[in-house]
Structure formats: structure tokens, C-alpha cells
Specification:
Elements (H helix, E strand, L loop, with lengths): L9 H10 L1 H21 L5 E11 L6 H18 L3 H11 L7 E6 L5 E8 L2 H22 L3 E7 L13 H25 L6 H7 L4 E6 L7 H6 L15 H21 L3 E6 L6 H14 L4 E6 L6 H4 L10 H5 L11 E2 L5 E4 L8 H7 L1 H12 L2 E6 L8 H7 L2 E7 L5 H13 L4 E9 L52
Parallel strand pairs: 5-12, 6-10, 6-11, 7-9, 7-10, 11-12
Antiparallel strand pairs: 1-3, 1-4, 2-3, 8-9
């Protein structure tokens, strides 16, 4: 990572603080618990008894102002003398004890002849008795040294009722706040230094790929209750009346660029993939297909994320036996029997799976999947394939070789930029063609409450991708070559 290219992106920081609010709260709680433990195990209470003395110089021929100045000067001298060991020894004799078990301090108030005298000890009664002894014993010492000073007690000492070194509620709050701020600062530093793509500027600086278009962030919840209940609004065009015009227009711009690629290179079949899960791949593929259909093209959208199919949920479609794509791939039904699902009254047709089909790799190796794609290609203007994340399924690299162009969906602040570059390089190495990337979930303008991210499909469905096997050069991610078997994990047909 190049530290010099690190940029401050406020949304990334806010999202991280929001997602890790629990850690900040736990840090504050741990601070309070630490104080409690120290208070009950290490802390030793101390008690301070105090008295106020008035130091006056004896009358002379000097004026009143000069007499006051002399009294103030003598107060400073006496404050140093009264804490000397000789005074403490006299106090011990007065009490009849072996040692002066306390700390004696004296402080003169600025520009006055008032002196605060205090004794701190581990017992309130002991602090009080030691201070009384000092006040009683001091004249025995001072009279032999200062014969022109009168010391009067303005406020007599009292037995202290509470420790002078107690940890107050304000101190507890301060310490807890300091712990929370420290953890928040660590989160902010890691957020800034994390080598992900946070905005368009980061994309240009970090990725070795072309940017086809950007998709702005859209809210998936319209109330706190919906967010707590996990009720996500679909971000599919024409299915959500609350989608912003900018969101729609950006997809139309992306569709226009795909048309340009088609005119220039004759490309008809496009695979849509991503590096990791939950980058908005399925929603992006669906909206590209809808936008192309809106522009007058006949389009087939194919769900080839066969281990975690999602498009049937995106479009809220019930898939029958003759519309199940896996039945066509494994030859349970013939191409003439297979029925595409039409999206509303548009020219978009859907080839869906409602259940995982982990054996689809056999169809790739036998060439059956390629025949299916070719059959679709012959019927329409565009074929859009929604594949699995490239690090989640080793067969994605086989699929990208069958298509004309591959589009990579990059969600802001999700996958590491080095991993995205590796994925692009891998697609090129296996013979695929990269049309470019779509930067998803961008924040063009700052709004404080738009901090939560966009999911892959907008639906909470089942578990996340499990442990993956090795997929080409992606061994460092863990096991990527196999999804978790949904039948074994308890998933059922929905």
C-alpha cells in the first residue's frame, strides 16, 4: 500500500465507526470496569484535615499598607517553616506517639496573609489529631524564631467525612470517555489506511481497469423499524418507486456504454461478477438488463450463481420445473420445453434457478453450459450472466472464457484494491475480456444519515458464503473452490 496515496474519505470513516460502535461502547465499559477493579483492589483511601490560619505582623511604626505586605511576606516564610521536621517532632510529643504518620502541607493564598494548613493520612481521625497537634506545637517553635508574628486560627480543623483522593463520577466518565475515544481513533486510523477503493478518485489511482460507470448509494430502509426488522427495499428499476432519478440515470448511462461496446466489438454476452460477495453484483446485473430492455433490446438475464441463486428473489419470481435453469443444463428438459420468465411486459426474459445447483461444474466441463448460452445468444440482442463472486467459485474463470465481455462490480470500501487488480489480471490470463468495472455504492454528496451499505441483492437470504477452496491464485483467501452445501446446512427450497 502506498501511504502517500491515502485519502480521507468521510463516509468510509463514518461507516466504520457505525459498524464498530459496539467496540467503542465496550472500550468505555472496560474503562469503567478497570476503575472499579482498581478501586476495590489497589486503591487506598486518604483523608485530609484542613485549617485556615491568619498570619499578622505585630504593630510598628509602619503604615497599614506596609504592615499588610509584611504579613504576606511572613506568611510565605512561615509556610516553609511549619512543615519542617522540628514542628512534626513537637507534634509527636504532644500526641505521645512514635511517628508522624501523615503528610503535612502548607499553602499561602496568593497576595494574602491567609495560610491553609492540612494533614493527609490513611485515617480521618488520625489526620484530624495530627493537624490539631501541629497547630498546638507550632508556637513552641515559632516563638523562638519569630517574635514579631501573631498566628491566629481562622477555621478550626474538623474530622474529614470522605476520602480526599476518591474517584468522582466525573473522573469515571472522563476515563470511560478517554477509552472510547482511543478505540474510535484506532478505528479511524485503520479506516484511512485500509487499501480499498473508497471513491472514483481512489479507483483511478489504485485499479488497473476501466471505469464503465458509478452507482450512487440508495437507502434500503425508510424507517428505523424496517432496518431493525431487516426489511430491505428492492433496488431493481421499476420495482421501487422511491429509487432516485440519479440512480436510474446512471444505469442508463452504463447501458449506453454497453451498447457502444456492442457496436464497436460485436459483443452480445456479458458476465457480471465481483471479487467478493455482497458487492451488489446481482442487483447490478438485473438493472443493466432492465435498462437495456428499456432501450428497446431483447435481453435474457441468466442466473449462473448456481451455488447461491438470488435473481428469483430479486424479481420475486416463482420458478417452475420447466423454468428451472438447472433442469435445462442437466438435460432434464429440452431447450424447446424450457420456459423463460418474462419481466412484466418488457423485452427482458429471465433464466432463473430457485435452488442451488452445485453440480453445474459438470455442465461446464461437458460443454453443455456453453451450448445453453449460445442458444440464448441466438434468440436476443444481449445475454447478461450473473455469476458467483470470482473468489467464491473456481468455475467463474471458466465462464468468463465463454462470454464476450466481463464486467466487474466493485463496491466502495469492500474488497482490497490489490485483490481487485489480481482478479482482473486472472480473467485476462485465462483468455477473458474485461469491459471494465462498475463502482457501486458511491456517495457523491455528504449526508450524515446515509451510512449503511448496499447489499448484494437487497434480501437477507440464508447464510453467507462459507469456507472456500483454492481458486487459481486466490489461495490466500482460504478455501474458495467449494460453496457450503445448502442441503447439508439446512437450506431448503423457498
Amino acid at each position: 500500500m502506498n501511504i502517500l496515496n491515502t485519502r480521507l474519505e468521510i463516509y468510509s470513516i463514518l461507516r466504520d465507526l457505525f459498524k464498530n460502535a459496539w467496540a467503542i461502547f465496550m472500550a468505555a465499559l472496560m474503562g469503567l470496569m478497570s476503575i472499579y477493579i482498581l478501586t476495590n483492589s489497589v486503591y487506598s483511601p486518604e483523608y485530609t484535615a484542613s485549617a485556615t490560619l491568619v498570619i499578622n505582623a505585630k504593630s510598628s511604626s509602619s503604615g497599614a499598607y506596609s504592615l499588610f505586605n509584611l504579613s504576606a511576606e511572613m506568611s510565605n516564610v512561615i509556610s516553609r517553616v511549619i512543615v519542617e521536621p522540628a514542628v512534626q517532632e513537637k507534634a509527636i510529643e504532644v500526641l505521645g506517639v512514635d511517628e508522624f504518620d501523615g503528610k503535612l502541607t502548607a499553602k499561602v493564598h496568593d497576595d494574602t496573609n491567609f495560610m491553609s494548613l492540612s494533614v493527609t493520612s490513611d485515617s480521618p481521625q488520625k489526620a484530624y489529631e495530627l493537624l490539631r497537634a501541629v497547630i498546638e506545637a507550632y508556637p513552641q517553635v515559632s516563638d523562638t524564631v519569630f517574635d514579631n508574628v501573631v498566628i491566629n486560627v481562622l477555621r478550626m480543623p474538623e474530622v474529614p467525612h470522605s476520602p480526599s483522593n476518591k474517584i468522582t463520577t466525573g473522573n469515571r466518565i472522563l476515563i470511560a470517555g478517554a477509552c472510547a475515544v482511543a478505540v474510535a481513533a484506532i478505528i479511524v486510523v485503520f479506516s484511512i489506511l485500509r487499501d480499498t477503493v473508497k471513491d472514483e478518485e481512489d479507483f483511478k489511482n489504485k485499479l488497473e481497469a476501466k471505469l464503465i460507470g458509478t452507482v450512487p448509494h440508495e437507502r434500503k430502509h425508510f424507517s428505523i423499524q424496517e432496518k431493525l426488522q431487516g426489511k430491505n427495499k428492492s433496488l431493481v428499476l421499476h420495482n421501487n418507486a422511491f429509487i432516485s432519478l440519479t440512480f436510474v440515470e446512471n444505469y442508463h448511462k452504463i447501458a449506453a456504454k454497453i451498447e457502444h461496446i456492442h457496436r464497436r466489438k460485436g459483443s452480445k454476452v456479458f458476465a457480471v461478477t465481483s471479487v467478493a460477495e455482497n458487492e451488489g453484483k446481482s442487483t447490478t446485473a438485473a438493472n443493466i438488463a432492465i435498462s437495456l430492455a428499456d432501450r428497446g433490446h431483447r435481453v435474457i438475464l441468466v442466473d449462473l450463481d448456481c451455488r447461491k441463486p438470488a435473481l428469483f428473489k430479486v424479481f420475486d419470481k416463482t420458478v417452475g420445473e420447466k423454468s428451472e435453469l438447472s433442469n435445462l443444463m442437466n438435460k432434464k428438459i429440452t431447450p424447446t420445453e424450457f420456459r423463460l420468465k418474462r419481466y412484466k411486459q418488457s423485452s427482458l426474459y429471465l433464466a432463473l434457478n430457485s435452488e442451488p445447483y452445485p453440480e453445474y461444474g459438470d455442465c461446464i466441463e461437458s460443454g453443455e453450459l456453453k451450448k445453453v448460452i449460445k442458444g440464448f445468444e441466438a434468440q436476443v440482442d444481449y445475454v447478461i450472466l450473473d455469476t458467483a463472486p470470482i473468489v467464491a467459485d473456481a468455475f467463474v474463470t471458466d465462464i468468463v472464457k465463454m462470454v464476450d465481455q466481463t464486467i466487474m462490480v466493485v463496491r466502495t470500501d469492500t474488497a482490497f484494491s490489490a485483490d481487485i487488480n489480481d482478479a482482473v489480471a486472472t480473467i485476462k490470463e485465462v483468455g477473458g475480456h474485461i469491459a471494465g468495472c462498475i463502482l457501486n455504492d458511491t456517495y457523491p454528496e455528504f449526508t450524515f444519515f446515509a451510512m449503511s451499505g448496499v447489499g448484494d441483492t437487497g434480501f437477507a437470504y440464508g447464510a453467507r458464503y462459507g469456507k472456500y477452496g483454492k481458486s487459481n491464485k486466490y489461495g490466500k483467501y482460504g478455501k474458495y473452490s467449494r460453496y457450503e452445501n445448502p442441503r447439508e446446512s439446512g437450506d431448503s427450497k423457498k
